[in-house]
Amino acid sequence: MDPETIEAQLSDGSIIHIQATPLGGAERIADLGPISFTEVTDTVKHLSGAMLAILKEIKPRSGSLEFGVQVGVQSGKLTTLIVQGTATANLKITLNWGELEQ
C-alpha cells in the first residue's frame, strides 16, 4: 500500500506530520488522529544503545552508525521498519561517536 501522511505526537505534545505505510490491510490510517511517536523513538534509542554497546566492546578509535527507518502503522500504533537503503527511508539517522574507550 502507498504511504499516507498522518499526525504523530512527540513526547512534549508537539504534532508532526509523517508518511506512514499501513501494514494491517486496508485500514485508512490518516483518520486515526495523532498517534504517539514513542514507538519510533524507542526503537531508535534501543537500536543505538545496542550498537554503542558493540562499539564499546570492540573498542574502535571512532564509530559511526547510519540507518534508514520507515514508519508503518499496525493496529493503530506506529511501528518502525529498518530499511535496506536510506534512499527510501522516512528518517535517515546518522549517529557518530568519538573516542569510545572509558
Could you describe the 3D structure shown?
The protein is α/β, with parallel strands linked by helices. The chain has one domain. The protein has one helix and six strands; from the N terminus they run βββαβββ. Strands 1, 2, 3, 4, 5 and 6 form a six-stranded mixed β-sheet that branches. A hairpin with a 2-residue loop joins strand 4 and strand 5. The N and C termini lie far apart (47 Å).
> Roughly what is the average pLDDT, rounded to an integer?
79
What amount of the residues lies in strands? 35-45%
Q: What is the domain tally?
A: 1
Can you give the helix content as a percent range? 10-25%
Report how far apart the termini are.
47 Å
What coarse outline follows from CA principal-axis ratios? elongated
Low-confidence stretches are none
Query: How do the SSEs run, as a string of H and E?
Result: EEEHEEE
Q: Give the helix/strand class.
A: alpha/beta
Q: What value does the Rg take, in angstroms?
A: 16 Å
How would you sum up the major sheet? 6 strands, mixed
How many helices? The count is: 1
Brief digest:
With 102 residues, this protein is an alpha/beta fold. 21% of the residues lie in helices and 41% in strands. A hairpin with a 5-residue loop joins strand 1 and strand 2.
Note the topology.
Elements: E1 4-9, E2 15-22, E3 35-36, H1 38-58, E4 63-74, E5 77-83, E6 91-97
Parallel strand pairs: 1-3, 2-4
Antiparallel strand pairs: 1-2, 4-5, 4-6
Q: What key phrases describe this protein's structure?
A:
alpha/beta; six-stranded mixed beta sheet; 1 helix; 6 strands
